[in-house]
Amino acid sequence: MTKKRQETHSFEREDEIIGRDDDKAALLKLVLESQSEENVYIIPIVGFGGLGKTALVLLVYNDEMVKSHFELTMFVCVSNVFDVKLIVANIIKSVTNQAPDQNLEMDQLQKQLRDKIDGKKYLLILDDIWNEDPEQWSRLKKLLMGGTNGSRIIVTTRSLKVAKITNKCESHVLKLKGLSDDDAWSLFKKIAFEQRYVDSTNSTFVEVGKQILKRCGGVPLVIKTIASTLSLKETENEWHSFKEYELAKISQIEGDILHTLEL
Predict the structure, then answer these.
(1) What is the DSSP letter of 246?
(2) What is the pLDDT of residue 102?
(3) CA 130 to CA 133: how far, in whole Å?
(4) How far apart are CA 17 and CA 39, in angstroms?
(5) What sequence ranges are listed for the domain NB-ARC (predicted)?
(6) How confident is the model at residue 49 (pLDDT cuts 50, 70, 90)?
(7) Helix (H/G/I), strand (E/B), else coil: 71
(8) Among 39, 113, 141, 217, which one is least packed by beta carbons within 10 Å?
(9) What is the domain partition of the chain in residue ranges?
(10) Which one is the CATH code of 14-175: 3.90.1170.50, 3.40.50.300, 3.40.50.11270, 1.10.150.20?
C-alpha cells in the first residue's frame, strides 16, 4: 500500500514560517537572477519529509517581486503518481482556473498547454515529485520548454536522484536542512505555549521543552506536531511523562519519524 500525501496548494502565510529567511534569499536569487543558456531553467529543492520544502517554495511563489517578474505563475501538486497527462491537465487548470475536458486526448492537451505557456515568461512549481524515471521526466519537460528566456520550473522532492534527473548542475540544487536551535525553539515555543495552559517563563517547562526539542532534529513538521500535543498538557508531570514514555517510542531515523508520529 502507498499512502497518498495530502494535496498541497499555492497559499501559505509568511508570518507562520520561521527560520527560512536565508533559504528564501537563496531561492529568490536562483529564480530572479541566475543566468542560463536554456530559456526554461529548472531549480530542484531536495530534503526529507517535513522540512518545509513546500512552505519555502510558497514564500517565493507569493513574493510580490516574483509575481511582477513573471507573466504566468502556476502551482501543481504532483505527489506519488507521475502521470504526464494528469500533470499537463493540472498545469492548464492552474493557468485557466478551469479543468480541461476529461475526454481530451493527450495530443489535444499538449496543444492547449503549449498555447498557454509558449512565448511567455513563466514560473511553474511542481511540488512533491517522486518519479525517478528519466524518460517520464523527459516526456513532460519537452512540453514545457517553449517559455521565453527567464522562465523557471521549481521542483520539490525528497529524492536526490530526482533532483539530479531534473538538473545535473549540483550548484543549482537547493538542499534544505533542519532549523537552527534558535529557530527551532522559537517555533516550538510559539505553538507549545499558545494555549496559555503553561507559562513560557517557567524554568521547568522550558527545560523539559528544550530536552524534548533535541529529539525533533530541527524538522518543522515534527516540532509542530509535538508542540501541538504539549500545548494541551497543563502540568509538569504531563510534560515529563511525554518526554520519558511517548517520545521514547519515536524513531529518529529520517524516513521513520513522520510515520511514527502519524501512528
Answers:
(1) I
(2) 87
(3) 9
(4) 31
(5) 28-196
(6) confident
(7) coil
(8) 39
(9) 14-175, 181-262
(10) 3.40.50.300
CA atoms of 251 and 247, how far apart (whole Å): 9
The residue length of the chain stands at: 263
Mean pLDDT of 83-98: 95
For cell 536522484, the residue is 161
> Which among 120, 123, 106 is positioned nearest to 31, based on CA atoms?
123
- Which residues, 6 or more positions from 119, have their beta carbon under 8 angstroms from its beta carbon? 146, 147, 148
Dist CA 61 CA 197 (whole Å): 36
**Mean local confidence (pLDDT), 163-181:** 87
Return the C-alpha cell found at 145: 520548454
pLDDT band at 137 (very low <50, low <70, confident <90, very high): very high
The candidate with the shortest Cα–Cα distance to 156, out of 53, 74, 81, is 53
Separation of alpha carbons 33 and 30, rounded Å: 6
Name the CA radius of gyration of the chain, rounded. 21
Contact status, residue 261 vs residue 250, Cβ threshold 8 Å: yes
Cβ neighbour number for residue 118 with a 10 Å cutoff: 14
Q: Are 86 and 37 in contact (CB under 8 A)?
A: no
Residue 172 near residue 11 (C-beta atoms within 8 A): no
Mean pLDDT of the chain: 86
Three cell numbers, residue 233: 498538557
Over residues 87-94, mean pLDDT: 96
Exposed, middle or buried, 261 (CB in 10 Å: 0-12/13-18/19+)? middle
